[in-house]
Amino acid sequence: MPTYIPHSRTDGEENRGSRDSAASIPIPLMHNMPMGQLDLIAPVTGDVEVALTGKASDKATRHVDGRNTLNDLAGHEWLPETKSFFFQKGLGADHAHTEIERQHPAPFSFQDIARLVGFFTKSGHTVLDPFAGVGSTAKACALLGRKSIGIELSKRWHELSQQRLRVEAGLPRLDAHRLILGDARVVMPTLRPNSVDFVVTSPPYWAILNKKPDHKSLERVRRELATTYSTDKRDLGNMTDYGAFVDELVGVFLACGRVLKSKRYMAIIVSDFRHGTEYYSFHSDLIQRLKGAPIRRNSRLELQGVKVLLQNHKSLKPYGYPFAYVENVHHQYILIFRKQASAA
Ligand SMILES: C[S@@+](CC[C@H](N)C(=O)[O-])C[C@H]1O[C@@H](n2cnc3c(N)ncnc32)[C@H](O)[C@@H]1O
After folding, report:
1. Distance 87 CA to ligand 1 centre (A)
2. From ligand 1's centre to the CA of 131, what distance in Å?
3. Which of 152, 146, 174, 141 is nearest to 107 (CA)?
4. Cα of 48 to ligand 1 centre, how many Å?
5. Which of 44, 134, 217, 274 lies at a CB distance of 3.0 to 4.6 Å from 104, suitable for a disulfide?
6. What is the pTM of this model?
7. Residue 28 Cα distances to 37, 41, 58, 327, angstroms
8. From the alpha carbon of 184, which atom of ligand 1 is closest?
9. Of 51, 53, 56, whose CA–CA distance to 26 is shortest?
10. What architecture is domain 19-341?
């Protein structure tokens, strides 16, 4: 197995994200969100109160522009979401709702996904996540009143995602959320073209979870938690060749492009990483492959922006000290593509 310099994705530290840094983040509209869940995200004040109740206690009544086909945000809510960065947000390690996500070695914060879903969709829209894990996207969608489709290879994570919707989102029935157990490469071609309003996903980052044990994975072993997704050969996180891995991933994203409606968006959350002495600029490799990539004959994916998701809460490790510069990678990239019609 290759050796990797320790690196982590969103999780990194137990229960990703800092409450402090999150305090300054504007919250997207939480339509249909049960109040009990909302206070996991922010105190019900200001914009959120207006969004929920329609009553303005300290602001003018909110107004969603009639021409807005993208989301349900008013102008003053839209603008801050166009910033090219935001701070990652987590629930807090001792929150009861971290129990399920903690089982997975690399979950994504449902609050960060909710922020993207809140910007790129309207209430009732359908969101696709081809690497669904323990269902952070589905949970965000449930709390925001969106429908979702999630594909996951591992039975264990698939079942936990169903449990998560029942327990954490309080759904007695999962009708609005189609959680599919299978290989994304096989399932994607079976989905209807031009049928989803937004794609958001955090894919495997090659085989970084199979690296030599570090302080983090050893701590998970001690707590009898999984350190890899699976031992399945179809798991893209078990591929040994980086080029072949990127090829497979690009294939899945182009298939997502086919399923995406015209002019809608796809957000891919990734990080760069190190393998031995080599630095892999994973995010730029994906951009090179996907920017302008054709989807069938009449459309293509265009890059619309790259957001940086800051993980300023993570503790610094003395990699390389005192001989060499070895980065503490404390951010992720959110690559935002749009499906556009190709010139005739
Ligand atoms: C980074 S995790 C996604 C975590 C998810 N965002 C969450 O918060 O739970 C990537 C997921 O892709 C899954 N996976 C790997 N290869 C796959 C494949 N060929 N088809 C579908 N899922 C796959 C892994 O099992 C893993 O759960």
Report:
1. 23
2. 4
3. 152
4. 32
5. 134
6. 0.86
7. 14, 10, 18, 32
8. 20
9. 51
10. 3-Layer(aba) Sandwich (3.40)
